[in-house]
Amino acid sequence: xxxxxxxxxxxxxxxxxxxxxxxxxxxxxxxxxxxxxxxxxxxxxxxxxxxxxxxxxxxxxxxxxxxxxxxxxxxxxxxxxxxxxxxxxxxxxxxxxxxxxxxxxxxxxxxxxxxxxxxxxxxxxxxxxxxxxxxxxxxxxxxxxxxxxxxxxxxxxxxxxxxxxxxxxxxxxxxxxxxxxxxxxxxxxxxxxxxxxxxxxxxxxxxxxxxxxxxxxxxxxxxxxxxxxxxxxxxxxxxxxxxxxxxxxxxxxxxxxxxxxxxxxxxxxxxxxxxxxxxxxxxxxxxxxxxxxxxxxxxxxxxxxxxxxxxxxxxxxxxxxxxxxxxxxxxxxxxxxxxxxxxxxxxxxxxxxxxxxxxxxxxxxxxxx
Length: 369
Ligand SMILES: Cc1ncc(COP(=O)(O)O)c(C=O)c1O
Prior knowledge:
Blueprint: E1 5-9, H1 10-23, E2 30-32, H2 34-38, H3 42-51, E3 56-59, H4 62-70, E4 77-79, H5 88-93, E5 97-100, H6 106-116, E6 120-127, E7 135-136, H7 141-148, E8 153-159, H8 172-190, E9 196-200, H9 202-207, E10 215-216, E11 241-246, E12 249-253, E13 258-259, E14 265-266, E15 271-276, E16 293-296, E17 299-304, E18 312-316, E19 326-333, E20 336-338, H10 340-346, H11 351-357, E21 364-367
Parallel strand pairs: 1-21, 2-3, 3-4, 4-5, 5-6, 6-7, 6-8, 8-9, 9-10
Antiparallel strand pairs: 1-11, 11-19, 12-15, 13-14, 15-18, 16-17, 17-18, 19-20
Helix pairs in contact: 10-11
Pyridoxal-5'-phosphate is lined by residues 32, 58, 80, 161, 201-202, 217-221, 227.
């Protein structure tokens, strides 16, 4: 086994869920587990949320939904990505709910449902300002009416997605909420039951209580990470993921010694160089080259030279770093920590990308104290 692995703390996932439930006054939670549960491992994490009795799970792809069903998950699963007509029978077969974004495929949907003698369970997706998928909220009355009165469609929810909720100062979120609620008022005008209204991602959960409505859809916050490096820390969530490895090779190098591809780093005096056996082939970003840091013996050590596909080097200072020494890439070691938020700043990206890039090549282990 390689010495590199991800350790996921199920107790921290539980803690974060409980904090979110308390903060949202016990709103039902759709736990978002798309993209391999933000790098934490889809099946294990989904099963844990099922044990914790979340209300439903959210994924992006039909394949993710099928994988969850095949692994025995019986919770309601909602697939966010747009549904194509030729996929509808699979949604029905696997009992997956989905976002419906336009009335264009309703007729086809009806035909397929009729043939399978099944009802499709959908959440009407309204575009209140994200501009990605969904029926434009201002023009959605006809869409809502058509869906509600379709024989084989059960409108379980109506939803939208927030574009700027990670910034508590941005007025866009309140504008989106107003557009959404305005569109949703059509249900009352039609004299039909108002379905479950949901809007809040992690930013909405954190900073905009008025968006919590009937259910919340947190993703990154469940994993103990904030949406942006500088997002205000309102809830004491705990990061659930740690990334660990071991020094695979150690050497002392003289002044003027170059390290890694492109020889972008040269020692200016005698130095201790430790090789760490993971790289961008695992999702550990090449952008960390000559910028990032790791922890060895509770002390920060600088990455020197370019991160390679399977290995990278650090200059070890004031610490022993012979082969076999633990290297902490994400998480805590001896009271020091390296966070995903900090790493996203090194790579000029967002924490989401750091987490979801950590790929299947890294084994995951789970702790539950
Ligand atoms: C439709 C939808 N809802 C909720 C989420 C969760 O977002 P976050 O991870 O910011 O909480 C996502 C993720 O992008 C999403 O696409």
